[in-house]
Structure formats: structure tokens, C-alpha cells
Design brief:
mainly beta
Length: 231
């Protein structure tokens, strides 16, 4: 059984970060990107993604999304002893007002997936959501998601979303098969006209449960987004 690395990161200041990469659109259906990052005395990181969309009509389409990171500590290893990979693959089916998503995500290697320094350090993977990124050492997770666009029912700007993620196989100090789950429910409205046009108002409830990592979390978030045109 591989145990999670609990070494404390060094709080020394970041001195140098370099990254390069490219995104390329092969066609209207296929887009990919590849990036490399080196953070002095922290890690080197590779990131890759690909998106493929197969449209059947104006209101029906099938999309596939792939994301992955490969991280290895370097130099003084101030973020801890890292040598891990995290990837996700998701499929989305759009049928008029309805969208269904199934996603799978895995972490392998040594330590949790680590982020927090600028430059491709976020978690652009399918199961990174409100309370958990499902990025613990050894963790595998599945997601089922449903979106509803009420424009098709005469209420443009109003959408609903719900998703459920189940994680398993977490490595902790006590088990190599820890479990977790999270559920999100959201309603969002985007103002369609007037002075407040494009103002987005969102209410989201999140529930997270894990006896092995993270404990019990209950959240309600109210999010307002107001676009500003300054040019």
C-alpha cells in the first residue's frame, strides 16, 4: 500500500517561474493544447487537453473532453515530494434544452495533486468542483451531471444544474480505500435586457461527505457576476 506524503512544504518565496505551450484548432470540431511549466525549487509540470465535438444538428451534439497533468518535484522540492499524474475524461450529450455529462478522473503516483502557484497550476479537470477537486493520492472519481436550459421553455437566461461525484481509493494514513462524495445543485439567471443586461445571478448548494478526508461540508453560495466593457 502506498502511503500519502505528509511532508510540510517550505514557505520560501517563489523566485522563478517559466512556462510555454500552445493551443491549436485543427478544425471546428477538434482543439488541443500542450503546456510545460517549471517552478524553480518546486516542480516541473506538463499539461495537455483535447476537446472534440460532433454536431448532429443545431440542437444535438456529442462532445468529449480530456485533461491531464504530470507533476514531479524539483530542486529543493518546497511543495513536498511529488511525482504524480491526474487526468479526466468526460462525455457530454446535448439534446435541445438538456445536457448530460459523464466523467471519470484518476490520480496516480506519489502525493496529492498539488497546485497554488501561478502558471497552469489550477486544476482544469472534470471533477474539480465547489468543495473538492477529488485530487487526493490514489483517488478515482466518477461524475454524473445534468443541465437544463429554460430558454426552450420560454424563459431565456434561466438555467439549472445538478451533479454528483463519487470518489474512492483515497490513500490516507489509515486506509488505501478512502471514500468521498459531493453533490451540487444550482440555479442561474442572466438578465437579458435593460441596464443590468448580462448580469448573472447564481445560487448553488453543495454537500460534501468523507469520513476519510475532508469531513462534512454544507455550503450555499450566492454569486453575482457583472461584465464591464471598458473599451
Amino acid at each position: 500500500m502506498t502511503r500519502r506524503n505528509d511532508s510540510k512544504p517550505d514557505n520560501a518565496n517563489l523566485t522563478e517561474l517559466n512556462y510555454l505551450g500552445r493551443s491549436y484548432r485543427f478544425s471546428d470540431q477538434l482543439v488541443d493544447s500542450i503546456f510545460y511549466q517549471k517552478v524553480e525549487n518546486y516542480w516541473r509540470k506538463y499539461y495537455g487537453s483535447a476537446t472534440y465535438t460532433l454536431p448532429f444538428s443545431d440542437s444535438r451534439a456529442l462532445s468529449v473532453y480530456f485533461n491531464m497533468y504530470d507533476t514531479k518535484s524539483s530542486g529543493e522540492a518546497r511543495a513536498g515530494d511529488l511525482d504524480n499524474r491526474i487526468w479526466s475524461l468526460s462525455t457530454a450529450a446535448t439534446l435541445g434544452a438538456h445536457r448530460f455529462i459523464i466523467a471519470h478522473q484518476e490520480v496516480s503516483g506519489r502525493s496529492d495533486y498539488t497546485y497554488g502557484i501561478d502558471g497552469l497550476s489550477t486544476v482544469l479537470v472534470a471533477n474539480s468542483i465547489q468543495c473538492s477537486d477529488f485530487n487526493y493520492q490514489g483517488e478515482k472519481s466518477w461524475q454524473a451531471r445534468y443541465d437544463l436550459n429554460m430558454a426552450s421553455y420560454g424563459v431565456p437566461g434561466l438555467t439549472f444544474m445538478t451533479r454528483y461525484i463519487k470518489g474512492y481509493g483515497l490513500d490516507t494514513a489509515f486506509t488505501d480505500n478512502g471514500k468521498a462524495w459531493e453533490r451540487n445543485i444550482e440555479a442561474r439567471y442572466v438578465v437579458q435586457s435593460g441596464v443590468a443586461k448580462n448580469l448573472s445571478l447564481r445560487v448553488r448548494n453543495a454537500t460534501y461527505r468523507s469520513a476519510d478526508r475532508g469531513g462534512d461540508v454544507e455550503e450555499i453560495r450566492v454569486i453575482a457576476e457583472c461584465p464591464l466593457n471598458i473599451f
